[in-house]
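Suppose you are handed only two things: the residues of a chain and a line of SMILES describing LV4SOB2L. What would the bound structure be? This form records exactly that question and the answer produced for it, so the two can be stored side by side and reused later without any lookup.

QUESTION INPUTS
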Amino acid sequence: MDKVLIRGLSIDTVIGIYEWEKQIHQTLVIDLDMAWDNRAAAAGDDYEHALCYETVSNRLTALITEDPIELIETVAEMVARCVMDEFNVPWVKVTVMKPGAVKHAQSVGVEIERGHI
Ligand SMILES: Nc1nc2c(c(=O)[nH]1)N=C([C@H](O)[C@@H](O)CO)CN2
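ANSWER OUTPUT
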């Protein structure tokens, strides 16, 4: 299966369940694996057939910074839904990490897979 990948997309936003978290920005780090047939883009060296990782990254940053969110689970679902609905991606794996959220952990996070290949 071909994929287009995004690694370490860093998004500063209002995220968390506690009152103090609603007053600050924190960083989320998102990894995406998106199923995409890359053959047409490669065959014609043609951007029109490519799934543009830059466009996806910009859209997700806008989406996730629109409103405060409590759970990183919600972020993961929003990302998966957006990529599938707006970019016609049939399957996606989304990892959302919240570094520094737990004192003695380097990072914590969630991972989901949605759709079918
Ligand atoms: N499964 C989750 N657990 C927790 C979350 C979360 O989003 N998903 N969030 C918090 C707090 O916001 C935490 O990040 C503050 O340090 C706690 N547990």
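WHAT STANDS OUT: The radius of gyration is 15 Å. The longest helix spans residues 72-87.
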